[in-house]
Specification:
Layout lengths: L2 H12 L4 E3 L8 E3 L17 H12 L4
Antiparallel strand pairs: 1-2
Length: 65
C-alpha cells in the first residue's frame, strides 16, 4: 500500500489523532497526519492545532534517554 491509500482509512476514523512517524532514523521524527494548505480558512482563526499537538506529544513520550 501507498501512504495516501492508508491515510484515507485513518482520516475517516479520526483525522485529528493521526501521527506520521518516520522509522529508521537515529532520532524521533513525527509530523501531523492531518494537514494541508488550508487556504480556504487562512486568516479566519478556524484552524485546529490538534493534529500538531498529537504529533508533539507522541514524540515527547517516545524520547529515549
Amino acid at each position: 500500500m501507498y501512504h495516501d491509500q492508508v491515510m484515507i482509512a485513518l482520516k475517516c476514523i479520526d483525522a485529528s489523532k493521526i501521527v506520521n512517524i518516520t522509522a529508521g532514523l537515529p532520532f524521533i521524527r513525527t509530523s501531523p497526519g492531518h494537514h494541508g494548505t488550508a487556504f480556504d480558512i487562512a486568516g479566519q482563526n478556524k484552524a485546529s492545532a490538534s493534529a500538531m499537538i498529537e504529533s508533539i506529544v507522541y514524540a515527547a513520550q517516545h524520547i529515549k534517554s
